[in-house]
Design goal:
Mean pLDDT: 90
Strand order of the largest sheet: 1-4-5
Distance between the termini: 20 Å
Number of helices: 1
CATH architecture: 3-Layer(aba) Sandwich
Strand content: 25-35%
Low-confidence stretches: none
Shape: globular
Largest sheet: 3 strands, mixed
């Protein structure tokens, strides 16, 4: 995976529900393809967390893999 610069974390939010996805938070629905990408990011030491808005507590997405 190639990045344009150093990436230390990724905030996930606003991923709407659609058929084939499972809802894991109010504003986050994921499918197997999303999980594959998140796992690859984590292998590159990128922290992947979920928040609908900046004031929300961070949701550890890895517990849904």
């Amino acid at each position: 995976m190639k990045f344009g610069g150093p990436v230390k974390s990724l905030n996930v939010g606003g991923m709407r529900y659609e058929p084939g996805k499972r809802q894991i938070a109010q504003a986050i629905s994921i499918n197997d393809e999303d999980v594959t990408v998140f796992k690859e990011l984590i292998q590159h030491q990128v922290t992947v967390e979920g928040r609908a808005v900046p004031t929300d507590s961070a949701l550890d997405l890895t517990k849904y893999f």
